[in-house]
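Problem 12. The chain below contains 57 residues. Write out its predicted structure in token notation.
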Amino acid sequence: MNQKYVITNALKHCQEKKGLEIYANCLMSSHLHLLCKGTDGFILSDIMQDFKKFTSK
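Solution.
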């Protein structure tokens, strides 16, 4: 599967299920920039940890 689809689907999942609120993003070939925060009692560092675990595989 194309890497950009894996990343965008993982971000959508985090938005829908883990309280991630994204204000801006920039997906590049080697990295990703995000302006975001955790909402609804979710902690941003925990969200990012789950995101990284999923997308690194």
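Discussion. Helices lie at 3-17, 44-56. Students who got a different answer should revisit the alignment rule from Section 12.3.
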